[in-house]
Write a sequence for this structure.
């Protein structure tokens, strides 16, 4: 236990007081973190390099992967370091930054998942207007709005949190488990997504071709699964009755919304996506690698 009488900071509570278990948790989270980094970086690389994937859907997926990359990096490295050093101490400044980025990125993730549900809705329900509505300029503005809303909300929420006077022991359970978004905002986003998919599925069920229906469902269902998983886990965590002690179930749900989505999203969005798999094969092919190598050599010579 860190003596906090001479330090202005907080103590993050881990999974266990047993140092051997803490090391085991650190190694497990390190593996998960590396998988998340690899998967999301791979998606960003593939979409950036393959011009065939420069469409609205993959543009938003690219930013979702970037958000996931940043989101998991806010909490997991700190948790790994604390477990290995057997010290949960975090300075006041570090705590402010962690809370800000956690809330900002979580809010941005909810926002971009909401935006991503609008693309399929326009493509299926308003196909003749798709090119006009989902033009590159509109997509860029939507992404800028997503990042700005997250940053503003993170700043506002962090200011409110740290304006409150703290009494007693400065002990924080597990990750910085503060409300990443208000219940009302999340509810509005969830309703928007649900309404979009109700319209989408009602239109899809009218399609006579079973193959076309299957193709649409295989595109939409992964996104719906990601949204449901993220919001349900986060909602359970933030709406539960506050308590000084945390059960194993509470800790498990904290993992679900902070660690699992950024790790699984690359798999969910690329596993059954033929375009992504084809692009991955192209990027990893010897011919493509040789061309990229020659391109970068030519650039550096200039």
């Amino acid at each position: 236990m860190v003596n906090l009488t001479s330090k202005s900071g907080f103590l993050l509570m881990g999974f266990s007081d047993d140092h051997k278990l803490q090391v085991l948790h650190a190694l497990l989270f390190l593996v998960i973190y590396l998988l998340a980094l690899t998967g999301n970086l791979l998606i960003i690389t593939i979409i950036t390099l393959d011009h065939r994937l420069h469409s609205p859907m993959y543009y938003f997926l690219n930013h979702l992967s970037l958000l996931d990359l940043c989101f998991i990096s806010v909490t997991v490295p700190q948790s790994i370091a604390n477990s290995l050093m057997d010290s949960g101490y975090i300075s006041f400044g570090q705590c402010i930054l962690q809370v800000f980025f956690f809330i900002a990125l979580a809010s941005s993730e909810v926002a971009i998942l909401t935006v991503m549900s609008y693309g399929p809705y326009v493509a299926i329900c308003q196909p003749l207007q798709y090119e006009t509505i989902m033009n590159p300029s509109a997509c860029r503005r939507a992404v800028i709005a997503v990042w700005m809303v997250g940053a503003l909300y993170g700043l506002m929420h962090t200011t409110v949190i740290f304006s409150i006077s703290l009494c007693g022991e400065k002990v924080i359970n597990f990750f910085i488990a503060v409300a990443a978004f208000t219940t009302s905002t999340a509810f509005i986003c969830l309703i928007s997504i649900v309404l979009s998919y109700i319209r989408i599925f009602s239109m899809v069920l009218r399609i006579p071709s079973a193959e076309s229906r299957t193709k649409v469902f295989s595109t939409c269902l992964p996104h719906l699964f990601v949204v449901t998983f993220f919001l349900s886990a986060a909602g359970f965590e933030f709406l539960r009755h506050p308590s000084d002690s945390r059960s194993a179930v509470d800790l498990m749900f904290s993992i679900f919304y902070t660690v699992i989505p950024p790790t699984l999203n690359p798999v969910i969005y690329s596993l059954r996506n033929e375009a992504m798999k084809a692009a991955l094969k192209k990027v990893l092919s010897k011919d493509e690698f040789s061309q990229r190598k020659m391109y970068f050599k030519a650039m550096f010579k200039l």
